[in-house]
Amino acid sequence: MDFRRRRLAVTLRNQLNYPLQFNPFVFSKIFLLWVAIGIVGGVIAGLYWTVLEGFLHFLAPIQGLWVIPLMAAAGLLAGFIIHKLGDPGEMDLIVNNVRFKGGHLEPKNNPSMILSSWLCIASGGSAGPEAPLVQVVGSTGTWIAKKMKIRGEDLRSLTIAGMAAAFTALFGAPLGGTLFALEILHHKHVVEYYQALIPAFVASCSSYVIFILITHIGIGPTWNFPVYSAPELNDFFYAMLYALAGTAAGWLFIFTVRQCRSLFKRLRVPIYIKMMVGGLLIGTIAYYVPLSRYFSHDELNILLEEQTTLEFLLILLVAKILAISFTVTSGWRGGFIIPLFFVGATVGLIVNNLFPGQNLPLILVSCMAAINACVTRTPISTIILLSTLTGFHHFIPIMFASLTGFFLAPKTPLINAQLGVKE
Q1: CB 3.0–4.6 Å: which of 39, 166, 303, 377 could bond 133 by disulfide?
Q2: Which residues are listed as membrane-spanning (predicted)?
């Protein structure tokens, strides 16, 4: 025993006398792969966003009654693309493949995902580019891993790193995007893939820089939120109280999506017909409630700037929930995270109308955190994402609201693959 102690002491003394050196891991192949996936992800996200902005610039001026035939035609065309090039799947498939197929995301249907999602998002679908990009960049991570003959958990980690790079590029939050990519995979064990945390974070940081360089999007909050004063102790309790409204909206959204999903499953028609029908429904809603159109990246700022009545907000809430539900269940491509934040902000404004004189920034961020945590089961990353997107830098009230939405969520998650049952 004494011999071992003396040997350990000699070893430690020798190490302390070593000259300062870089950690050799920084120059290892696997670390450079993490960086490379982030760079590739940033380039893909940047080019995708640039082209999407071009489509939006071309299609956004089409307003009024013309919105209905436009969105019906867009759904039909996007459906033909999916029918001919292959169905790329949705978030359920991504989660299922990462969890039960060793992290293998197939890139063969990426052209179908890219082309169809451009049409769906640019024409006015109520779903954003986060889900398509997660599929594309995540599968690129799988492809790179296979080319480098990487197997096992390292392959899964590279796939998750690609997913995180995509989330980060769009949300502008490297830590939030990293945690979201990990949390979305399971609704209970948020650290199940803890070994992918550092790869995802490294890829997120490099993706973030490349995306900003390509798109020239500024660094700072995405939405113009009202200023929040220094938090008080009561704010934490108020945050949980306001979060009840956001959680109720989350339940309503999940119920609506399930009913719409059941409705479209009964339609025994090709996917392009389903998507055309979805386009007609979304377009009709957009005609009567224009603010429900698109995935709400810019519309949320408009909502915060306008003077709105309680009646308008209630109509907008119902219209937006229906628009998102029809979008994600009729085959239209896109993600519902940013649209959910819009719904949460609408609920917050309704609460503020019903009980004027309250702390508006706290109401808004509490409802937004609660609905997202309730629907996506991502309470930790929601805190960081919302703080980055809104400039609301006091974490603790958001934390209380996010956990309220998470723990009061329905037993069965909206993303079925989160249950842990192989599909």
Answers
A1: 166
A2: 30-52, 64-83, 158-182, 194-217, 237-257, 269-289, 309-329, 336-355, 361-380, 392-409
Phi-psi map region of 365: left, alpha, beta (phi>0 left; psi -120 to 50 alpha): alpha
Strand partners, 335: 128
List all residues 6 or more positions away from 229 whose beta carbon is below 8 Å from its beta carbon.
Answer: 359
Nearest 5 degrees, angle CA 66-CA 72-CA 74?
A: 100
Residue 2's pLDDT is 62
Q: What is the mean pLDDT of the chain?
A: 85
Q: Which residues pair with 128 in a beta bridge?
A: 335
Dihedral of the alpha carbons of 30, 32, 38, 42, in degrees to the nearest 10:
-150
User: What's the Cα-to-Cα distance from 268 to each of 262, 329, 373, rounded to whole Å?
Assistant: 12, 14, 34
DSSP letter at 128 equals: B
pLDDT at 190: 53
> Which residues touch 18 (CB under 8 Å, ≥6 apart)?
none
Q: What is the tens place of the pLDDT at every residue in 379-405?
A: 998 999 898 888 888 888 899 999 999
Q: Which residues contact 161 (CB under 8 A, 6 or more apart)?
A: 34, 37, 38, 141, 196, 199, 200, 202, 203, 204
* CA neighbours closer than 13 Å in the CB half-sphere of residue 367: 24
* Cα–chain center distance at 250: 16
Q: 22: buried, middle or exposed (CB in 10 Å: 19+, 13-18, 0-12)?
A: exposed
Name 84's Cβ contacts closer than 8 Å, sequence gap at least 6: none
Interhelix angle 197-215/29-59, rounded to 10 degrees, is 40
DSSP 164-187: HHHHHHHHS-HHHHHHHHHHTT-S
Which candidate, 242, 116, 172, places its Cα nearest to that of 389? 172
- Could you read off the pLDDT of 272-293 as tens digits, one per residue? 999 999 999 999 999 999 999 9
What's the whole-model pTM score? 0.88
Tokens matching residue 156: 């899964």
pLDDT tens digits for 15-40?
A: 556 565 555 555 567 888 889 999 99
The 3-state DSSP composition of the chain as helix, strand, coil percent (nearest 5) reads: 75, 0, 25
